[in-house]
Design the sequence.
């Protein structure tokens, strides 16, 4: 589905992503774990193409120079130079860190904005799917996005990303700042999304415990490099991972 | 992979790294590295009236300095306090009328009336703007834009302060040299003073207000008070420019509230590079002479002027001084990834 080879990202002279190889097979859930500043968000920006947009803006403002090198293949095609909107059209949809929902639009409008790329029929059926996945959203569908709680906002953000008909869903820290109960519920939803929509999902998270049981494969990122790679079970049993990312 | 990928690397010059610490200024070379840009600016400004011959261009130099002061005031408020003010004309108007009154009604000489009018004008502007200090962004901008319009119409409607005729017979400077050097030295003092101020404790708080005023409030600091101080400093600079203009033209009138005094300094700051302070001065050094040179084109002047401005903003939106400082302090080279 997605293959990343020798990916390097520099912010000015700082190396944010160092020679990362990563693969997301079809219909698999892949997790990327790492502490703050390990490069998780940069990885997501690079895969979704937003980094190209950031690079152009920084260039205009005379800010830091962003350099991206390496190969990103999506279904066998090179997509390194495609902008974020083109990648979204191809099915790579990012659910951004801190949710970034539209605070002044209602829940329903947020979802409809997400369906910009979908046909009417797709939008209708996906909306039903999102509401069955998160029944809470149906109850509050008229409420402005800004008035939602953190958990509801995260549900909405995932729902909005689903409306864009992703084939590869990128979830950037979907559990940030949420209670264990909601974290568990969201992870169950992720499993359900994979099962019913038959798509690939890439999740980044700092705290690995709620995510690891769900992923088929996991990567551990440290200072921009992949230091460990294994199936969810392997990572669960690895003492280094346990001490570093479970807080034990 | 056979293909060699390269990226352009930016590194601080060795001399910058060494010269940044005071202990390291051990050679003439390093001292020159630190001082050269400042000396070029100071000498350039001081020599400008000597280098231009015609009284017309001497006058242009003084106008450059007036707009430089207004640009400094705008840049300080916009990039160090986060208040976008479109009210340069408010300060020039208030300062100009105050100085004319001090000179005509109180009989104070020039060297007293200008500083007095600057300070008093600063107080008046701050009091006028006090109710708008909680506003930010476009709201503050609109209110400051309205004030000069309101004041000039009030003067006209009630026929106070000379009405449309203004206050004529304000004492002049008595010669082109005094005219030039008073404003040049005022500009240099304000420029270097402000540059120092923004790195003092006060500047630190002000920059905090710009970035996140709630966090500043949470630290137990009164945001409104510090905003008021900043507005006072900025409008004192603007009033200084206005007071100088009143004495330069020996007349204080409604044209002191002209929109030019609000808009041109902003354009100068954008071209010169916001947030550098010196950029505002450099920007007006480019814009004002340019607009004079374009006079030959008659009515097309504004069109050319606007095109130059738009080109600058689209191609180099970072601003000249930001770019120049980067080139001065850093070098670039290609490195293999």
Sequence:
């Amino acid at each position: 589905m997605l293959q990343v080879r020798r990916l390097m990202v520099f912010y000015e002279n700082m190396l944010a992503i160092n020679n990362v190889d990563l693969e997301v097979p079809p219909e698999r859930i892949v997790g990327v774990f790492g502490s703050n500043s390990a490069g998780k968000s940069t990885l997501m920006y690079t895969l979704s193409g937003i980094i190209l947009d950031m690079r152009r803006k920084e260039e205009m403002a005379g800010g830091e120079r962003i350099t991206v090198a390496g190969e990103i293949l999506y279904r066998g095609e090179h997509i390194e130079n495609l902008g974020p909107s083109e990648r979204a059209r191809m099915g790579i949809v990012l659910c951004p860190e801190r949710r970034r929902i539209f605070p002044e639009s209602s829940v329903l409008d947020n979802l409809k904005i997400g369906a910009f790329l979908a046909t009417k029929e797709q939008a209708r059926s996906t909306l039903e799917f999102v509401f069955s996945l998160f029944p809470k959203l149906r109850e509050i569908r008229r409420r402005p996005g800004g008035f939602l709680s953190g958990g509801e906002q995260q549900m909405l953000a995932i729902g909005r990303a689903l409306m864009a008909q992703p084939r590869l869903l990128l979830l950037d820290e979907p559990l940030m700042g949420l209670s264990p109960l909601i974290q568990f519920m969201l992870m169950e939803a992720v499993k359900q999304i994979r099962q019913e929509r038959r798509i690939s999902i890439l999740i980044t998270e700092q705290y690995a415990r709620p995510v690891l049981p769900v992923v088929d494969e996991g990567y551990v990122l440290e200072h921009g490099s992949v230091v460990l790679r294994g199936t969810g079970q392997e990572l669960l049993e690895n003492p280094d991972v346990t001490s570093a990312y479970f807080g034990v | 992979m056979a293909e060699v990928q390269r990226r352009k690397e930016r590194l601080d010059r060795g001399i910058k790294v060494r010269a940044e610490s005071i202990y390291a200024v051990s050679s003439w070379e390093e001292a020159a590295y630190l001082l050269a840009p400042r000396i070029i600016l100071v000498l350039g400004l001081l020599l400008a009236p000597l280098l231009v011959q015609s009284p017309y261009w001497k006058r242009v130099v003084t106008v450059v300095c007036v707009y430089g002061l207004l640009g400094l005031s705008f840049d300080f408020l916009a990039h160090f306090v986060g208040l976008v003010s479109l009210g340069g004309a408010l300060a020039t108007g208030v300062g100009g009328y105050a100085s004319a009154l001090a000179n005509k009604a109180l009989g104070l000489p020039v060297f007293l009336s200008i500083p007095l009018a600057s300070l008093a004008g600063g107080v008046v502007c701050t009091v006028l703007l006090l109710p708008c200090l909680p506003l930010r962004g476009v709201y503050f901008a609109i209110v400051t834009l309205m004030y000069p319009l309101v004041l000039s119409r009030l003067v006209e409607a009630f026929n106070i302060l000379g009405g449309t005729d203004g206050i004529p017979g304000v004492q002049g400077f008595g010669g082109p040299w005094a005219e030039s050097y008073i404003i040049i030295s005022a500009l240099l003092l304000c420029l270097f003073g402000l540059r120092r101020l923004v790195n003092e404790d006060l500047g630190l708080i002000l920059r905090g207000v710009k970035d996140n005023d709630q966090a500043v409030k949470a630290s137990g600091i009164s945001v409104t008070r510090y905003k008021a101080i900043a507005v006072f400093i900025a409008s004192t600079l603007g009033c200084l420019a206005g007071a100088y203009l009143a004495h330069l033209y020996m007349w204080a009138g409604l044209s002191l509230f002209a929109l030019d005094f609000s808009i041109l300094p902003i354009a100068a700051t954008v071209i010169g590079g916001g947030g550098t302070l010196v950029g505002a001065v450099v920007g007006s050094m480019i814009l004002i002479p340019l607009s004079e040179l374009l006079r030959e084109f008659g009515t097309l002047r504004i069109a050319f002027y606007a095109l130059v401005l738009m080109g600058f903003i689209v191609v180099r939106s970072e601003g000249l001084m930001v770019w120049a400082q980067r080139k001065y302090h850093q070098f670039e080279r290609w490195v293999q990834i």
